[in-house]
C-alpha cells in the first residue's frame, strides 16, 4: 500500500538520507556536481520542516521511499520539493506523490513549483502532469497548475 502522510521527527533521519541520494542522482540528468536544493542533506533542515508540518513521507508497505516539502498559503500551494529514493525510480511513485498532493490539498486553486533548467528529468515530468511554465528565474523554470479550471 502506498500513502503520502505528514512525516514526524522520528522519520527525519531516513528522509534526509533519501533526499541526499535522490538529489545527488541529478548528476545523471544534467547537474554539474552532486548537489541539491538548500538543506537537501541537512538533518536539522528536515527536522525543522517536520516540526513545522511541511515535511511529508511516501511510504510503500510501511517503508519510506520518498518525501515532499509543501507550503500552503490560503488557496495556493508551493511544492518546495519532492524526491524518491533512486532505488525506486521509474515505478510511478513520483506520479503518485503529485496526485496525492492534489488530492490532499483539493481546496487549493493554484500549485506552484520550480525546477532547475538543466534537469531534463523533472522538467519533462512536471509538464507530463499538466504543469505549465510561467517564467524563468535565474537558473530555474517556474511552473503552475491551476485546479478547477
Describe what you observe in this structure:
The structure is a single chain. By secondary structure, the chain is an alpha+beta fold. It has one domain: 3-Layer(aba) Sandwich (Aminopeptidase), CATH 3.40.630. Helices cover 29% and strands 34% of the residues. It is built from 4 helices and 7 strands, in the order βααβββαβαββ. It has helices at residues 12-24, 43-51, 93-104, 120-128, and strands at residues 2-6, 55-60, 63-73, 76-84, 110-116, 132-137, 140-146. It has a 7-stranded mixed sheet with strand order 1-2-3-4-5-7-6. α1 (12-24) packs across α2. The longest helix has 13 residues, at 12-24.
Spatially, the strands of the biggest sheet line up as 1-2-3-4-5-7-6
Please tell me the total number of domains. Answer: 1
* Helical coverage, percent range: 25-40%
Going by CATH, the architecture would be: 3-Layer(aba) Sandwich
> Can you write the helix and strand succession as a string?
EHHEEEHEHEE
Any idea of the CATH class? Answer: Alpha Beta
Major sheet size, sense and barrel closure: 7 strands, mixed
Give the helices and strands, then pairings.
Elements (H helix, E strand, L loop, with lengths): L1 E5 L5 H13 L18 H9 L3 E6 L2 E11 L2 E9 L8 H12 L5 E7 L3 H9 L3 E6 L2 E7 L3
Parallel strand pairs: 4-5
Antiparallel strand pairs: 1-2, 2-3, 3-4, 5-7, 6-7
Helix pairs in contact: 1-2
What's the short story on this structure?
This protein has 4 helices and 7 strands.
Amino acid at each position: 500500500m502506498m500513502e503520502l502522510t505528514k512525516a514526524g521527527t522520528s522519520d527525519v533521519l531516513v528522509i534526509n538520507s533519501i533526499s541526499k541520494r535522490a538529489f545527488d542522482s541529478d548528476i545523471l540528468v544534467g547537474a554539474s556536481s552532486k548537489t541539491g536544493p538548500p538543506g537537501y542533506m541537512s538533518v536539522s533542515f528536515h527536522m525543522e520542516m517536520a516540526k513545522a508540518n511541511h515535511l511529508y513521507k511516501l511510504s510503500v508497505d510501511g517503508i519510506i521511499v520518498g518525501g515532499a516539502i509543501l507550503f500552503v498559503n490560503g488557496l495556493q500551494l508551493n511544492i518546495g520539493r519532492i524526491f524518491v529514493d533512486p532505488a525506486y525510480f521509474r515505478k510511478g511513485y513520483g506520479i503518485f506523490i503529485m496526485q496525492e498532493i492534489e488530492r490532499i490539498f483539493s481546496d487549493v486553486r493554484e500549485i506552484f513549483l520550480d525546477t532547475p533548467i538543466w534537469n531534463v528529468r523533472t522538467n519533462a515530468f512536471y509538464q507530463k502532469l499538466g504543469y505549465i511554465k510561467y517564467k524563468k528565474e535565474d537558473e530555474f523554470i517556474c511552473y503552475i497548475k491551476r485546479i478547477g479550471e
